[in-house]
Design a protein that fits this description.
The chain has 302 residues and is an alpha/beta fold. Among the domains are: 76-139, Roll (Ubiquitin-like (UB roll)); 144-289, 3-Layer(aba) Sandwich (Rossmann fold), CATH 3.40.50.11690. It is built from eight helices and twelve strands. It has helices at residues 2-37, 46-69, 87-94, 107-115, 188-202, 240-253, 256-260, 281-289, and strands at 76-80, 120-128, 132-139, 144-146, 152-154, 160-163, 174-177, 208-213, 222-226, 232-236, 263-265, 273-275. It is elongated and about 155 Å long. The protein starts with a helix and ends in a 13-residue tail after the last helix.
């Protein structure tokens, strides 16, 4: 009996020792885990310093960016899209003085001022760093030049919209009118004269040097002087397209008396009436006898 009791005490002692060892290992592991989560006992808290450092860098970057991208005072004005006007004329039209602060510039007001110029249809501005201002314009297109003491550019709508130096618009047809039109206003007959210059190309006729518009009560209506034809061509005001086609056929016939005539009147239906200098009347009568080109007693059709 005594030997059995000693054995049980010995067994309990080993179990207790094993349990105590397990508890020690568990406590030791818990301490190690807790120790990892705690900050080191010395040195700066880098995590708390990271956010202020980033904010400082961002603030400095924004300040440098604002300084670098700030337009600054006007130093250079660049012009795009201008053909008739010079850069100096556009700068003058904009009314900008060198050194004006671009960051405070009312660009919309500048654009409105530019479009008030007779030659400028639309305008856009763009301020760039370094004091640069880009002005992009779309100019109004001149389709003809209204002749007179001061020539004026005329657009496709028949509006004499701006003074025009004939030397710089020599390629455009000249318009002459018996009655002086009002500048800045649309005139139906000027618009018709511009349309007539374009219709000539459609019919394969030479470009016009001049288109004349007679007074409202003058039956001659529209008259032409072509680049490669000496006679003055009378068209009237009606059936213009048919008369241009007749002129094309007449020129294709290459009649010498047509080239020698002083005028060609196409207002007579089915006939071209030639006006010739007195020295060539005999040739004109001979041409009439041969049925090529003849004077007519019919009244013009308008």
């Amino acid at each position: 009996m005594k030997r059995g009791n000693a054995t049980r005490r010995s067994a309990l002692t080993r179990a207790e020792r094993a349990a105590q060892a397990r508890r020690r290992r568990a406590l030791s592991h818990l301490e190690r885990v807790q120790g990892r989560k705690q900050p080191p006992p010395s040195g700066p808290d880098l995590r708390r310093l990271a956010l202020p450092a980033f904010a400082l860098a961002a603030t400095v970057g924004l300040w440098i960016g604002n300084v670098a991208l700030r337009p600054g005072p006007l130093a250079v004005l660049a012009v795009r899209g201008a053909e008739t006007l010079s850069a100096e004329e556009i700068a003058q039209a904009a009314g900008l003085a060198r050194g004006v602060e671009l960051g405070e510039l009312d660009r919309e007001s500048v654009e409105q001022q530019l479009t008030s110029h007779a030659w400028i249809a639309t305008a856009r501005t763009l301020a760039l760093p370094g004091g640069r201002l880009v002005v992009s314009v779309v100019e109004r297109r001149a389709a003809a030049v209204l002749a007179g003491p001061e020539p004026w550019a005329v657009d496709a709508e028949g509006v004499p919209f701006a003074p025009a130096a004939e030397a710089s618009h020599s390629e455009l047809p000249r318009l002459t009118t018996a009655e002086a039109p009002t500048h800045g206003e649309a005139h139906p007959e000027l618009a018709a004269a511009v349309a007539l210059t374009r219709a000539l190309e459609t019919h394969g006729l030479p470009a016009p040097r001049e288109v004349s518009v007679a007074a409202a009560d003058d039956p001659e209506g529209f008259a032409l002087r072509l680049q490669s034809l000496a006679p003055r061509v009378i068209l009237g005001r009606e059936r213009i397209d048919e008369r241009l086609a007749a002129l094309r056929r007449l020129l294709d016939a290459e009649l010498p008396e047509v080239r020698q005539a002083s005028r060609i009147d196409l207002r007579f239906e089915g006939q071209a009436v030639l006006g010739v200098p007195p020295s060539q009347e005999g040739s004109a009568q001979a041409a009439a006898a041969h049925g090529r080109a003849a004077a007519s007693t019919r009244r013009p059709t308008g």
